[in-house]
Amino acid sequence: MSENKDPHVSTPESREPAGQKFVYDFTEGNKDLKDLLGGKGANLAEMTNLGLPVPPGFTITTEACKVYLGSGEEPAALRDEVSAHLDALEARMTKKLGQADDPLLVSVRSGAKFSMPGMMDTVLNIGLSDASVVGLATQSGDERFAWDSYRRLIQMFGKTVLGVDGDLFEEALEAAKEAKGVSVDVDLDAADLKKLVRQFKKIVTRDAGRDFPQDPREQMDLAIKAVFDSWNTDRAKLYRRQERIPGDLGTAVNVCSMVFGNLGPDSGTGVAFTRDPASGHQGVYGDYLQNAQGEDVVAGIRNTVALADLESIDKKSYDQLITIMETLETHYRDLCDIEFTIERGRLWMLQTRVGKRTAGAAFRIATQLVDQGLIDEAEALQRVNGAQLAQLMFPRFEDTGARGGEGPQRLGRGIAASPGAAVGKAVFDSYTAIKWSRSGEKVILIRRETNPDDLDGMIAAEGILTSRGGKTSHAAVVARGMGKTCVCGAEEIEVDTKRRRLTAGTTVVEEGDIVSVDGSTGKVYLGEVPVVPSPVVEYFEGRMHAGADDADELVAAVHRIMAYADRVRRLRVRANADNAEDALRARRFGAQGIGLCRTEHMFLGERREMVEKLILADTDQERETALDALLPLQKADFIELFEAMDGLPVTVRLLDPPLHEFLPDITELSVRVALAESRKDANENDLRLLQAVHKLHEQNPMLGLRGVRLGLVIPGLFAMQVRAIAEAAAERKNAKGDPRAEIMIPLVGTVQELEIVREEADRVIAEVQAATGTNLKLKIGTMIELPRAALTAGQIAEAAEFFSFGTNDLTQTVWGFSRDDVEASFFTAYLEKGIFGVSPFETIDRDGVGSLVRSAVEAGRATRPDLKLGICGEHGGDPESVHFFHEVGLDYVSCSPFRIPVARLEAGRAAAESRGSDSR
Predict the structure, then answer these.
(1) Which one of the listed residues 872, 875, 883, 895 is annotated catalytic?
(2) CA angle 350–256–125, rounded 5-degree value
(3) Which residue in 347, 348, 748, 777 has the most C-beta neighbors within 10 A?
C-alpha cells in the first residue's frame, strides 16, 4: 500500500477475514507480535508476562487499522470485541468507564510496529465528564488534580480527535497563568482550572461545531478512530518516508487503565534509558518530572530533573525502577527506553522498547553487550549499520581552546541530545527552515520546544536547538532517530519565535545570523566554528590506532566491529578512483582494488586541447598524431595507478562520455565567434571548433555517440587506451610490481560490439607483450548499463571475462529518466506523493533494475561459470543496495573512497543477516 493511496478504497488486504481476532488483552501477547500488536502493545504484553507492574488494558490490532483505512469503516466484529475486553477491564478494576462516583479512566495510545515518536495520536484521561470529574475529585481527595485531568482531556481530545487548533488551548492556558501571575501550570488552583475547563469547552463547541462529548464510550470510540486516522497524517507519512518505514503496516491502538503522575509531589512521570542513548555509556539516564503526566516530559514544556534525582525524591520507587531496568535490559539484550509513572508512591510501567540511539552509542553499546556476554559478535554486527558509520565519519568542531586565542563566542549550553557539528543560519519556524534549505542555505532550527508538526523543518535543518526539554523530549528523540545534531534545554537562551530572535545575556541573535551547535557537548556558539576530521576518519586514514593506550573508545568499538565484518563478509569492496591520490586513500580505507577508473577524467585540464585536436582531425595522419600525443600521458597515469594499487585489481573503463563534453559550450563559442567576426578578427581554430560542436551536437547525447560506439566510430581511440594500459602494466611488471589491470568496454548493447573491440584489444596486447617480453594477463569485460545488455547477458558473457553493472545509467535507461533533468523537476513531487520511498538513484530499485541485474547474473554465469561480477554505480556504497548485491551473488561492489568503510560494514552485515544472527 503506497503512501498516497486513497484511504477509503477497498483492497484485498483491507477486507475483513472471517473470524479474525482484533483485540488482545495485555496478558495474551508477547514481544514477538509487533506486526500484529505494534511495538508498544507487544512490549506491554511482554512486561505483563514478566510480572512487571503494568496497568491492565488491551490492544486493538494493526489488522483492524488496515481494514478501517482500506474501507473507511471499522471491522464489523470490532465493537463487540472492544466491549467484551472493556467489560473484563471494568470487572478487574471494580469500576465502570466514566462512572460518576468513581470513574475508570483510560488512555488511548497509538503503537505501530516501528517507533514513530510523536507522529501519531494519544489521548489521556478518557472517561472524564462534567459528572465524573466530581467523583474523581472525591475519590482522589484532590480537587485540583481532577480538574487538571479534565482540562488535559478536553485539550488533547479537542486537538487530536476533533481537529481544533491546539494553539487556541495553549493561548487560553497562557492567559490563565498570566492572569494569576504564575509561570507554570502547576501553580493554577482548582478554581482556575474549573474556569479553564469552561473556556476549553467553549473553544471546542465554537471550532469543532459540536459540544465536547459527555458519554465516555463515545469518547473512547472516537479516540480509537482518531488514532487509526493518524497513521495517514502528513507528518506520519513524512516520518515514514524519512525513516523508510512501509506505508501499509497500520498502527495498533492500546487502551490502558490510567495511572496518574499529577496527583501531587509524591507522584510524577518519567522516561528512563538503561544506558545513555547519546554516548552509550552505562549508568542512570533519563528525565523525571514531579506532579505531571507523560506528555509534559516528552513535549519539553517543563524542564525535568535528572533521573538520578529520583533517588532523593522517592528512594523506594527509584530502587524498584533500577531493578526493573536491569531486568528489561537483560531480557531484551539491548538498550531499553522506558516510560513510567509514579502514582502516590507506586511505580507503574507504561512502555518499553529497544531505544533509539546515536551512531556512537550504537557502536559502543554493541561491543559492551558482547563483553557482558549478552550477545555474540555476529549479533553486535547487526546492531549497527552503514548509515551510523557514515555519521561517525563527519567532521566535528575544533577544540579552539586547545590552540589558544579567544575562540568563538559561546551563547549558552544545553543538553547534548544528539551529537554532531552543525553550522547554519538561525531560523525560528519550520516553514522558513524548509524554504531556506530549498534555496541552498544551511539552517539551524531554533524553537522553545518542538512538536510533531515541526518534523519537516527538522528534516530540512542541519541541526536543532531548543531552550526547553531534556534528553527524552520530542526534539531529542526524533533528532537521534534521524542522526541529526541536537541541543535541548539551553535555559540560558531565551527564544522569541514571534520576533524571530534569541537572546543570550546581552547578545541578540536575529534570524539569518550564523550559529554553531555542538550536539556532543551541548554548547552553542555565535558564528561559524571551525571543524576537524572525526577520530573515526583518522582511524581509517591510519593516523590513529585502535590498540594505542590513548585510543578513543569509540574508535576501539568501530575497529572491533569492522574487523568482524571483514572476517565474515563474502563481497569484496573496491573503489571508484581515477588517480593515484584517490587510490591510495581508498587503499587506506580498506579497498581491495579499483572497480572503476574513469579515463575521461584524465582528459581534462591542460589535456583538453589535445582532445580538441583529435576531434578536429580531418585526416588519418592528424588523428594518429593526436593519439600519439595522448598515449604517453595516459600511460603515465596508469603507471601511477597500478603502483598505488600494486597486487590488487584495477578496472579501467575506456572512454565513455560523448566527445562534445570536451568541447566548449555551443552558446559561449557562438558568441565568441560572432564577436570576433564583428571585429573582423575571426579565429580559424574557433571556427573549426564551432563547426565540430555543431556536427557533434545531439538531441539526447546520453543515448548517442558514446561508450563502445566511440571506439567503433573513431579509429584508433580505444586501441590507444588499451596500448597505454598494456605498456603501463608491462613497465610495472618489469619493475617487479604486480599490476592486475582489467579493461572494461562501456555501454555495450550487443555481443557483436564487444567482439569487435575485443579483437582489436587482444591484438594490441599481443603486440605490447612481444615488444616488452612480458606475459600480461589482462582481463577484458564490459559494463552492463543498458537493458538490452542485461537481457542478452548470456550472449555477451561469451566475449566477456567480467561484468560490472553500471547501475547509474542502467537506472536511467530502465526508468526512461534523464537524471540531471528529473531530479531537478519532479523527483520531489514523486517522493512527497509516495511514488518513491527513496530515489532509485540512491537505493537500487529491486523490482525493476534489480530484476535485470539478477537475471543478467544468472544468464552470464550459465554461459561462463567463472564470470567475475561487480557493480560500480553509486549504489555500491548504499547500505540497502549492498545487501541486494550480496543476495544476487556479485563478487564485489565499488564505490567512492569515503564510502568504502560503509560498504565493508554492510557487506559483513549482509553475510551475518543471511545466517539469521539478529535475535531482537
Answers:
(1) 872
(2) 100
(3) 748
